From TrEMBL:
Residue span, HD domain: 9-170
Stored PANTHER family: 5'-DEOXYNUCLEOTIDASE HDDC2
Protein name, UniProt field: Putative hydrolases of HD superfamily
Superkingdom, natural source: Bacteria
UniProt keyword list: Hydrolase, Metal-binding
A Pfam family this chain is assigned to: HD_3
Source lineage: Bacteria, Pseudomonadati, Pseudomonadota, Alphaproteobacteria, Rhodobacterales
InterPro entries: HD_domain, YfbR/HDDC2
Amino acid sequence: MAFLTEACKLKRVDRATPLCDGSRPENSGEHSWHLALYAMVLGEHAPDGVDLNRVIRMLLIHDLVEIDAGDAPIYGNHDIAAKEAEELAAAHRIFGMLPGDQGADFLTLWLEFEAAQTPDAKFAKSLDRFQPPNQNLASGGGSWLDYDVDYDTVATRVGAKIANGAPSLWDWIAPKIRAFFAA
């Protein structure tokens, strides 16, 4: 119960990406839930052999470290190595609240997501990068305007991750992003 109570704190972590209606920033709890739903709805775009149940589990826990480390906006400037160390310490603390084997399982799953080397993790990471551009498009630019980015920045920081785990999703959204920046 201590872990579940601690996890509730994720709802207090605001992200750079706005809700689709642009009314306020999304919080990390909402983001994690939304990504799990993305996996359920868009699972047909996963490469063969991807275990959607594992992907959903990854997506539900992937940002719990933000309880301690905060959100690191994809277009923000931060020390990547320092942020990774902060998140790893947070993962050990937060998943350490669970019973031994369960905590170890959650930590292993989180580390797999972060490494993005397995087919499951690549697809999960692609969804993590696919959702924000959809919300930015729906909200009239969202964090793209806030961070003054261009298409090439989006393609580099987001597109490559999407294409790595779900090429058809990048093929679908890339023209929409390009059209937004051309307008």
